[in-house]
Structure prediction request, 428 residues.
Amino acid sequence: MFADSAKIFIKSGKGGDGHVSFRRELYVPNGGPDGGDGGRGGDIIFEVDKGLNTLTDFRHVRKYVATNGKEGGKRRCHGKDGEDLVLKVPEGTVIKDFETGKVIADMSGDHMRETILKGGRGGNGNMHYATATMQVPKYAQPGQDGLELWVLLELKVIADVGLVGFPNVGKSTLLSRVSNAKPRIANYHFTTLNPHLGVVDLHDHESFVMADIPGLIEGASEGVGLGHAFLKHIERTKVLVHVVDAASTEGRDPVEDIHAINEELKKYNPDLLLRPQVIAANKMDAVSPDGENPVQKIRNVFEEKGIPVFAISAVSGQGLKELLYHVSGLLKELDAEPVIFEQELNPEDLIVEMPLPYTVEKLEEGIYSVEGPRIEKMLGYTNLDSEKGFEFFQNFLKKNGILDDLEKAGIEEGDTVKIYGLEFDYYK
Prediction:
């Protein structure tokens, strides 16, 4: 079975923690801080591989995690960066956030390689935090967490022209006749379960890509049959060619078929009906010359709506030249660039702030110490003598988890907290 969608979990690497260490040299009893920075976490990168045409590999492996950055070392040594994880996908793959359905990236056109999740930044080592008042900082910055997402991969074929119609109306035969495609053809419904692409070369060195979209049925927009799986491949096409059985060899009314297909397109995505449409009244070789001309009936309904009708036979080749040159003319009037889905969600918006570097230390029974560069700065511009200022500082300690860490260290009500020469009594 052609695999054109897959749900997978991706996670970038966590940044390595900064390191706390001090120089230990002969004749230098109190060396300064020399803790190095942590390494960057690995990225999750998607890359187009033009040798692929399905998402089958992602059906078997659903979890993809890049490696974490390593912790910094002593003597200002930088931790090793985590390795990026590169996932190969076929051209035309759209990456969506599974929860919201928003497009993250469309691996088409110029977008051949995209970094989807960036790895976390490495934390600063304690060598960055020496100040005039704190010459031996015992804290370093933790590494930034990686990002994680469940994403939906959808392969949407890249074609200029999409052949649409009910099963067994001759779309595959038409594509094989006018292009280099070799779809499997037989006289039963749903022969084509996979979209087929073919390049149509005209005599004046012009060409375009045509896709045989598997036969649609009523209810396809609600997912009846394989409706959603087929309809998504129409979204990139610029021109739609309705292929109908003009001879009604299976008793179907071609006019009703066109209305039914357009209704499914409208329900799935109303914008599809804004694209140029052409009707290919196929199987003219099976129409009795003595009976009523079925093509005129189709023209009476649709040509007044601006939709041209071409009488063709995919088997004999009748009318194909006129159809193809008309389609080529329509394409010249449209934007030459392929249809690319715009980004709707940037995973970088999910990045959280780097955690604060600080230490919580029990000095002796009932006395605790808290230190950190942001805490020191906060004390410099906060008026702790005012009720509002003191409340602001308390909220800062709570929001950043410092009060939680004091609880974990065993602090109790009435104990003392020392912060840069200031002393506070601890109460919940």
